[in-house]
Write a structure and sequence with these properties.
The protein has 350 residues and is an alpha+beta fold. The chain is 43% helix and 24% strand.
């Protein structure tokens, strides 16, 4: 590391000693440690190694360390891990989530990316503890955490926010995509806990997305929490998205191919969610707001069905590094039958 530069020296000293130095201070200390190592090598007629030279320098020469402790690296790593994880569930803890949220908001802002946050709360969990005991409550928390771990990507962050509250941080994920993930977790928690204990424990969640719903970590957290409270108020065991006060209809997540026709041009698209008043589709190229469109679906076992509408919203939403767009369509005319089919697909009844 002799020619690595000042930023590297500061980082190395922080890792090796947990002492913080400015870049110029770190550079000065690093050069003195190297010189001290050379002197020890000459005096002892053997190489003492960097760690021994560093320890002797900070204890006996510089005297920055007064009571150093030698610790096996495996024990150190376990200690370091326990500082950021929840002891019961193994998920990240509240403190780590807040730091990760701040970091991801900065990254999303710098690279013009989407970032979604979902907050969850187990429904009526106090009643579970009161009637079935805290040990059973702990088992439910651990099973819920297991569902979250298996439902997320490597880049996502799952945390126990506190008590029976959980949170997931979803980088590069749109509002619609986050709703799909959150609702998948909701359904899996319900199914898993019913299969294991027959108790019917459920979970509710709220979703907020940067930058549509919030532009700071604190605001994103608050908005996701608002969505969670809305889900509780609407009857529990559901996912609510922030901004829902502007919508008159409940939206059902759905993933179904559609053919979109606009201005004599046909495009392959995918319906992402559907409500009584419209639907959200994703496709590779934008359609101008105000365009009149026809959406054709081909559900299994029935003839093709068409819906007519007007584009009311277009947002850029890259998924997996590919460019795509989310297009909101308000339906007009006689589209009820086709819409009902899509809603059944989304709710799993088709």
């Amino acid at each position: 590391y002799r020619h690595a530069g000042q930023p590297v020296y500061a980082c190395l000293l922080s890792i090796l000693t947990h002492l913080s130095f400015s870049e110029s201070e770190a550079d000065r200390h690093w050069r003195r440690i190297q010189a001290h190592r050379d002197r020890l090598r000459s005096a002892l007629r053997r190489d003492v190694g960097l760690r021994v030279a560093l320890l002797d320098y900070f204890v006996n020469v510089n005297r920055e360390l007064h009571n150093p402790k030698v610790i096996e690296i495996a024990i150190y790593e376990r200690t370091e891990r326990s500082a950021v994880t929840d002891g019961l569930t193994g998920l990240f803890n509240h403190a780590y989530l807040i730091q990760a949220l701040k970091r991801e908001v900065l990254r999303a802002r710098r690279h013009d990316l989407k970032l979604s946050l979902a907050m969850f709360d187990l429904d009526d969990f106090k009643r579970v503890n009161d009637t079935r005991g805290h040990l059973e409550g702990d088992r439910i928390l651990m099973r819920t955490a297991a569902v979250m771990r298996e439902s997320l990507r490597e880049i996502d962050t799952a945390a126990r926010y506190g008590g029976e509250e959980f949170a997931i941080l979803l980088p590069e994920t749109s509002r619609a995509g986050a709703h799909v993930v959150a609702d998948r977790i909701r359904r899996r928690v319900e199914d898993r806990l019913r299969a294991r204990d027959g108790g019917g424990t459920t979970i509710s969640g709220g979703v907020a997305t940067y930058p549509e719903d919030a532009t700071s970590p604190e605001e994103l957290l608050r908005r996701a929490d608002e969505g969670l409270y809305r889900a509780k108020a609407d009857g529990k065991n559901r996912i609510a998205m922030v901004g829902g006060e502007r919508r008159r209809h409940f939206r059902v997540p759905v993933s179904h191919p559609v053919l979109l026709r606009a201005r004599s041009k046909r495009r392959t698209a995918r319906a992402e969610n559907v409500s009584a008043g419209g639907l959200l589709v994703s496709l590779r190229e934008p359609v101008p707001v105000g365009s009149r469109v026809t959406l054709v679906i081909r559900p299994a076992g029935v003839p093709s069905m068409a819906m007519h509408g007007v584009v009311v919203r277009v947002e850029k939403a890259g998924h997996d590094g590919r460019r795509s767009y989310e297009v909101g369509v308000r339906l007009v005319g006689e589209s009820g039958e086709a819409l009902a089919v899509l809603q059944r697909v989304g709710s799993g009844r088709a």
